[in-house]
Each structure stands twice: as C-alpha cells, then as structure tokens.
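Example record

One chain of 252 residues, shown exactly as stored in the release files.
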Amino acid sequence: MNTEALFLLPLGIAVGMLGALMGLGGGIIVVPVFMLGLGYSVTETVGTAMAIVFLNALSGAWAYSRQGTMLKKIALLFGMATVPGAVLGSYVSEYFSGELFQALFGTVLLLTAVNMLFKLKTAEAAAPYEARGGHIRLGMAFSLAVGFVSSVLGIGGGILHVPFMQQVLKMPIHTAIATSTGTLAISSLVGLLAHGAMGHVLWTEAVLTGIGALLGAQLGALGAQRLSAKRLTAAFAIFVFCMGIKIVYAAI
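Predicted structure tokens for this chain:
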C-alpha cells in the first residue's frame, strides 16, 4: 500500500491539472489507470473515480468562480438536471462487464474528439455568452443524459458537456470549461453518494488521489487562462482521442 500511495498522490495532481485545464473531472485518466494498471474491478473503479472527480471539480469550480469565468446559475441548473440520471447510472454500472465497459467508454471518447477536431474553427474567441430560455431547457435535458452516462462510466461528464456547451449552445471555450466544472461538482457529488452507499468506493485510494487532485486543479485553472481558445480546444480533442484509442484497443 505504501508504494501505491506514493503513486496515487502525483496521479491526483496530474488528474487535477488536466481536468481543470480542460473542464473534465479526471475520470478519463483515473479509470484506465485503476482498471488496467492497478486491477480494480469495474464497480471499484467507477465508485473510486467518482470520488476523485468530485474533489477535482470542487477545487476547479472554486478557482473558476474566483476568476469570474463560470456561469454559476447555468452550472447549478445543469448540475441539478444530472441528478436523476446519476442515481440511475450508479445502479446500472453493476451490470457492465469489463470489456463492454471499456469498449463503450472508449467509443464515447473517440466520437467526441473527432467531432471537436472537425469543428475546430468554432473555437475562435467568441462574444460573451447570453443565455436564452431555449438553451437552458435544452441544456438541462442533455444534462439528464450526461448524468446517467457519467455515473455508468465513472467520469464527470465534462467530456460531453464541454463540446455541447461550445458547439450547440455556442459558449466560448473558456466559459464552457469553467461552467462544465461547476456542473461536475454537483453531478459527481450525487454519483459519489450513490456509489458510496453501495460500497463501490475504495476510500483510502480515493482520498490519497483526491488530495493531489485538489492541488492540481488550482494549477490547471490558472493554465486555462493562458491558452488561446483554439489551442485549448485542440489540446482537449487530441488528448481525448488518444485515450479513446488506448481504451478501445484494450477492450478488443
């Protein structure tokens, strides 16, 4: 356990930095590490990852709130809309085999990354976002589905929310990332409580990795401010694409 503890803390720092930088909870990093590297079961992986996603998102949301880039009302509404889906997903995750879980997870990553790369031009700096009633309703409906998917896969949902906010709701990428992080803090808490109640969380491992994530998220939020919209989008898409290939390959 001592050797593993020395590994989990820096893992958490890396997760926090990349997660906050790109509006992700960090599940896309810790899920393959826990399953393929440390040999955790699917339920242990999903539950423990959800704990780390929550701590990471909470830290990142605090940083983005101080920067003034997060749309707090939208983050709250979208986060609340994920709750029913997150609870349902925590129960469904028990019925996924390891191979099916990895294949589904990797496919979601690949499709999202390809879509973002094809629409890279839309990542240019945009005017400040103005919320419309139709956007809010559409976003809440989408967030319901995101809550389910993220709870099943052990991810925060930012990998789906950020492209949706940027490409469908037409938010600037920096605003989308900050608002997605706020949404994650709410949705991941619900998923964590549900998984925790069913005994899916390895709490020692979650705390060790989560401490690193709390620190790393502060650094990631600062880094996001320094990158242009196009570079931030390209980095997000390329990273997600590479992770998708790795996970799908491991599943076949």
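Notes: The mean pLDDT is 80.
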